[in-house]
């Protein structure tokens, strides 16, 4: 195996998920020569494409999703009535949480940069700054989110229109009749579902969402679908589709807007099981924004080793298909994912490790492996909060609670002391910490940028 020297960068970001790409966009906008390197595209294809900042465990809706009465799955009304109040309460009660490290100003700045970057790529996000939206899921439940793609907006439960949910026999794991029945009960609105057959795909037994989305890039197919729906549509209804309305990246909202024009009623998408088309659109928008800002992207290559000198990271080694590259930079941002993304590793005997820089993994609430057991199904598991402990600059800490390296920063799912599943905070934390890590890394470079 041979190695070669690669031109140096100001900042190298390891990981191409939301946190990594947001760090790359922020650093590049600040004038840093930035490279994002990753073995894959992160977990964006597993997401709904919407942005959760803080959800049901911490904040109730200001408007009840069910007009006819309360829903048992919703949080208690004694909790804060606004997103900013809920965030402030969380910061006070959990001083090690990433939101307690990131200021409200930087959270807002990161979210606005995310929205602007996606809008530049033709992907627009809507939402009220201090209030969660409530949108239908593929099971007919309702979920809170702070920002939703424009193509999902018409599904919000506080609109008055009844629902017509459209499904396709060839698309598995999306059941419009089941969805509509549940949605009728959880939203308080009449909802019904129908199945359609599309002649072009009738001969095939099943289709994945990404393949079906490619077909919806064709105006002729959209016209055929609209014609079929018209024979089922009742006055005043809005139409919900599985989130397969187009996969093109240059103008991702065109298929949705075209169907809305053809039908003359509000049209919206409902996220499906992975692979997620809205998540893929979000990844493509962020990738385009990073490249447009002047950043360089290296995906499909594994970071296998780091080169350090005392408290400074000098370089990383990346295995590409052809050779081993040595990449140097003034600062590094680690956004390679947590235990579920492969950025942190766990073993049968309870050993946890961060494999690239040898950073210690914090295990809040579970000092021993025997503490990992929880007797109640569905209870919060301590492993969900395992990760890297950092200081206010997002520098990972060593065993003595000091910065392990002066020019290394961490972001996203690698961080400890938060639970994205129970808090419904995953997107807000990844965006905000990616933004903050880039600010800290740029500041670390001083006059070099």
What labels would you give this structure?
449 residues; alpha/beta; FAD/NAD(P)-binding domain; 2 domains; 8-stranded mixed β-sheet; 4-stranded parallel β-sheet; 11 helices; globular
Put the structure in a nutshell.
This protein has helices at residues 18-29, 83-93, 98-101, 104-120, 176-187, 209-215, 219-230, 254-263, 277-292, 420-423, 426-445; strands spanning 3-5, 9-14, 34-38, 125-126, 133-136, 142-145, 148-149, 163-168, 191-196, 238-242, 267-270, 296-299, 302-309, 312-319, 324-334, 345-346, 352-353, 408-410. The protein is an alpha/beta fold. 47% of the residues are buried.
Describe this structure in words.
Residues 1-6 and 60-79 have low confidence and may be disordered. It is globular, with a radius of gyration of 23 Å. It has helices at residues 18-29, 83-93, 98-101, 104-120, 176-187, 209-215, 219-230, 254-263, 277-292, 420-423, 426-445; strands at residues 3-5, 9-14, 34-38, 125-126, 133-136, 142-145, 148-149, 163-168, 191-196, 238-242, 267-270, 296-299, 302-309, 312-319, 324-334, 345-346, 352-353, 408-410. It is of the alpha/beta class and 449 residues long. The longest helix has 20 residues, at 426-445.
Give me the secondary-structure topology.
Blueprint: E1 3-5, E2 9-14, H1 18-29, E3 34-38, H2 83-93, H3 98-101, H4 104-120, E4 125-126, E5 133-136, E6 142-145, E7 148-149, E8 163-168, H5 176-187, E9 191-196, H6 209-215, H7 219-230, E10 238-242, H8 254-263, E11 267-270, H9 277-292, E12 296-299, E13 302-309, E14 312-319, E15 324-334, E16 345-346, E17 352-353, E18 408-410, H10 420-423, H11 426-445
Parallel strand pairs: 1-15, 2-3, 2-15, 3-12, 8-9, 8-10, 10-11, 15-18
Antiparallel strand pairs: 4-7, 5-6, 13-14, 14-15, 16-17
Helix pairs in contact: 1-9, 1-11, 4-9, 4-11, 7-8
């Amino acid at each position: 195996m041979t190695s070669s020297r690669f031109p140096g960068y100001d900042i190298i970001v390891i990981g191409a998920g939301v946190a990594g790409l947001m760090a790359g966009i922020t650093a590049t906008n600040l004038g840093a020569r930035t490279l994002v390197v990753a073995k894959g595209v992160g977990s964006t294809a597993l997401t709904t494409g919407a942005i959760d900042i803080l959800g049901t465990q911490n904040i109730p809706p200001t408007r009840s999703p069910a007009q006819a009465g309360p829903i048992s799955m919703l949080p208690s009304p004694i909790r804060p009535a606004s997103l900013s109040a809920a965030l402030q309460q969380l910061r006070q009660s959990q001083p090690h949480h990433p939101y307690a490290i990131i200021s409200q100003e930087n959270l807002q700045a990161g979210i606005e940069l995310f929205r602007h970057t996606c809008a530049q790529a033709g992907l627009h996000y809507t939402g009220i700054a201090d209030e969660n939206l409530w949108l239908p899921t593929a099971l007919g439940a309702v979920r809170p989110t702070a920002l939703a793609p424009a193509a999902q907006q018409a599904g919000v439960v506080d609109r008055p229109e009844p629902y017509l949910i459209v499904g396709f026999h060839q698309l598995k794991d999306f059941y419009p009749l089941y969805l509509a029945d549940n949605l009728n009960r959880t939203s308080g609105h009449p909802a019904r579902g129908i199945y359609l057959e599309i002649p072009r795909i009738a001969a095939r037994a099943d289709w994945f969402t990404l393949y079906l989305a490619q077909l919806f890039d064709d105006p002729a197919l959209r016209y055929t679908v609209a014609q079929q729906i018209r024979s089922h549509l009742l006055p005043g209804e809005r139409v919900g589709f599985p989130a397969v309305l187009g996969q093109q990246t240059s103008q991702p909202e065109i298929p949705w807007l075209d169907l809305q024009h053809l039908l003359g009623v509000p049209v919206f998408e409902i996220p499906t099981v992975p692979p997620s088309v809205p998540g893929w659109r979000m990844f493509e928008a962020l990738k385009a924004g990073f490249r447009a800002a002047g950043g360089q992207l290296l995906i499909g290559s594994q970071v296998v080793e780091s080169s350090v000198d005392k408290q400074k990271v000098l370089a990383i080694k990346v295995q590409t298909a052809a050779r081993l590259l040595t990449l140097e930079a003034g600062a590094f941002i680690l956004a390679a994912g947590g235990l579920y993304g492969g950025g942190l590793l766990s073993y049968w005997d309870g050993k946890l490790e961060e494999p690239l820089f040898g950073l210690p993994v914090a295990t809040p609430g579970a000092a021993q492996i025997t503490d990992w057991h929880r007797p109640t199904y569905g209870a919060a598991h301590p492993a969900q909060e395992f990760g890297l402990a950092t200081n206010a600059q997002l520098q990972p800490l060593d065993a003595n609670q000091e910065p392990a390296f002066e020019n290394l920063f961490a972001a996203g799912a690698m961080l400890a002391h938060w639970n994205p599943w129970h808090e419904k905070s995953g997107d807000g934390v990844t965006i905000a910490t990616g933004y903050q890590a880039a600010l800290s890394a740029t500041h670390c470079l001083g006059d070099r940028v």
